[in-house]
Design a protein that fits this description.
5-stranded antiparallel β-sheet, 6-stranded antiparallel β-sheet, Hydantoinase_B, globular, about 600 residues, about 20% strand, 14 helices, alpha+beta
């Protein structure tokens, strides 16, 4: 490796982060769909000529499928490549609405890097508006599949390909506008990176790339992996339904082997994961040696940092890849589906894996991991507006994160970085409904020494007849608590009091009816009977915990008005002493939904430490 100036490494690393942020800002300001512009459900990434991810603020897709189908030597300045095919994306694309554009960066006639963006678009065809049919049995029901193609050739858009894609979309204007925004932003990012190479030279910049990746490898090895005791640890968690079969436990299992002397100190083995589902909860993760999943799961390791501040400083780039070996079961499981198995709700699996890794690490480290957190769920309505035009409102509402060994979980966070809810003012101005409440879902966070974060409580009153849609798990199972903490409350939607399933495509909602959405609360960490009673009183005062839950979940007796409760210390001490002996807590608490689906078993065989 060429000797590298550490100051230049800092300059290059800062430039990469700046370019990535500039690309995302440009997309957000010029895109047309609410999902991209307002909910920010998209990502940018920068990769070097060896297809290594250089930036670490967020995850991104992969360059491998583009280079596989289009030799680098045949690429030209101004080219833009496009794909959304799940099975031909090398694991980088999870479902068809995620459209990916890739732009090569040139210096002295050679490709030296790639700028990429992918985002969740409104509609790419398929059986239902939004291209996420919850009861799909085949990828052919989910929308238009596009393998890697050249969408722009030397700066000239391929109008035929764009016409085919927009013709297959129920929202053609939004799709065309979003794609134009992403292509233009990535081309701009490529120009910025070309300037970096022109300023410092290819050898110096690529040496900095090597240093950035190497620094991540050594930092993770030294600061994080060293904290995991050597051994073999096993844990699993579950999706609860697939949209086709009745609800049951769809297992995702990790066997973690830790050997600090090995070249790859972490081995993540997914053997024991359930067979692929009939419905759309599968994730094609066993491609390119699991490179995408390695970078997807690695942020969980940051919880092992010495302090929260240090955790926030650690980026995840290609440097984590050499530290992890992944072993996949044979074809035909939730993580190794066989085409054309449907995948549009693959968040039930890929996001659950974050929790499975956190759970197995909790077993390995004596609980020094957060409890389970919210996952992505999509809720929305579609119909015709007051002018008779079709509309689709789809929202990715967040939920509570898990309690941590040092602090409560966060309320209403979004697991996808920088994603957010749709502003009420914008929603009411654009679509025929009123948002009558948007607040915290009281008692939704799992009780614990450190309470789980709260989910949303949102009420929408329809002004015109419409159809309700939902793609959501954790409607039966809960976000688990750890180290004596309790599970949070599950996801719940009612339409005029009628409870909805987590997977719904087209439930009719009449004008005047109200949709009530309560998103998941995070699991608690540590025994709730060890929580400072004053903190429980503050939660009651702030409307986060009810008076009844303060008594039954935390063993805290409060007196006085609800807006200024006071702790009855003697009564609280006596009640907690009784509860500690009559209601001991397991290491993992999966909540009441687990016995419902497990045939009455309160805990899984893998739960004991």
């Amino acid at each position: 490796m060429t000797a590298v100036d550490p100051v230049l490494v800092e300059i290059v690393e800062g430039t990469l982060a700046s370019v990535e942020r500039e690309v995302e800002t440009a997309i957000a300001r010029t895109a047309r769909s609410p999902m991209i512009r307002d909910a920010h459900d998209f990502r940018a990434g920068i990769h070097d000529a060896r297809m290594r991810k250089l930036t670490g603020r967020s995850y991104s897709a992969l360059v491998q499928p583009v280079v596989r189908d289009f030799p680098v030597a045949e690429m030209n300045p101004g080219d833009v490549y496009f794909h959304n095919d799940v099975y031909l994306s090398e694991g980088g694309i999870g479902h068809l609405p995620d459209l990916c554009v890739t732009v090569p960066v040139f210096h002295d006639g050679d490709v030296v890097a790639f700028v990429q963006a992918f985002g969740h678009h409104d509609d790419i065809g398929g059986a239902v508006p939004g291209s996420m049919p919850s009861h799909a049995r085949s990828a052919f029901e989910e929308g238009l599949m596009v393998p890697p193609i050249k969408l722009w050739d030397r700066g000239v858009p391929n109008r035929a390909a764009l016409t085919i894609m927009t013709r297959n979309s129920r929202m053609p204007d939004s799709l065309a506008g979003d794609l134009d925004a992403e292509c233009s932003a990535c081309l701009m990012g490529a120009r910025r990176l070309a300037d970096l190479f022109a300023r410092y030279g290819r050898a110096a910049v690529e040496a900095c790339f090597d240093a950035i990746i190497s620094n991540t490898t050594e930092t993770f090895r030294r600061e994080l992996l060293a904290k995991i005791p050597e051994g073999v640890y096993v844990w699993e968690d579950y999706a609860e339904h697939d949209g086709v079969d009745p609800p049951r436990l769809h297992a995702q299992r990790i066997t973690l082997t830790v050997d600090h002397a090995a070249g790859r100190p972490l081995v993540i083995d997914f053997t024991g994961t359930s067979p692929q589902a009939k419905g759309p909860i599968n994730h094609a993760g066993d491609y390119a040696d699991g490179v995408f999943l390695k970078k997807w799961l690695a942020p969980i390791l940051r919880n092992l940092a010495d302090t929260p501040e240090r955790m926030a400083e650690l980026d995840v780039n290609e440097g984590v890849v050499p530290l992890i070996e992944m072993r996949f079961p044979a074809k035909g499981t939730l993580l190794t589906p066989v085409f054309p198995a449907p995948t549009n709700a693959r968040t039930f699996v890929i996001l659950r894996l974050l929790g499975v890794l956190a759970g197995v690490l909790a077993k390995a480290t004596g609980g020094r991991m957060p409890a389970d957190q919210e996952t992505i769920r999509y809720t929305g309505v579609y119909g015709e507006d007051h002018d008779g035009r079709p509309y689709l409102m789809r929202e990715v509402l967040g939920g509570g994160s898990g309690g941590r060994w040092y602090a409560d979980g966060e309320d209403t966070i979004h697991v996808v970085p920088d994603s957010r809810n749709i502003p009420v003012e914008f929603a009411e101005a654009r679509w025929p409904f009123r948002v009558e409440r948007l607040g915290l879902a009281r008692d939704s966070g799992g009780p614990g020494l450190h309470r789980g974060g709260l989910g949303y409580d949102k009420h929408i009153r329809m002004l015109r007849d419409a159809s309700f849609m939902s793609i959501a798990d954790r409607s039966i199972l809960s976000c688990w608590g750890v180290n004596g903490g309790r599970a949070g409350r599950p996801f719940l939607v009612t339409v005029d009091g009628r409870e909805m399933d987590g997977l719904v495509d087209d439930f009719p909602v009449a004008a005047g009816q109200t949709i009530r959405v309560r998103t998941t609360g995070g699991g608690g960490w540590g025994s709730p009977y060890d929580r400072d009673p004053a903190l429980v009183a503050a939660d009651v005062r702030d409307g986060k915990v009810s008076l009844d839950a303060a008594r039954t979940d935390y063993g805290v007796i409060l007196t006085g008005p609800a807006d200024a409760p006071a702790v009855d210390e003697p009564a609280t001490t006596a009640l907690r002493a009784t509860l500690r002996t009559t209601a001991p807590r397991p290491f993992f608490d999966r909540g009441p939904g687990y016995p419902t689906l497990s045939g009455g078993h309160p805990h899984a065989d893998v739960d004991p430490r």
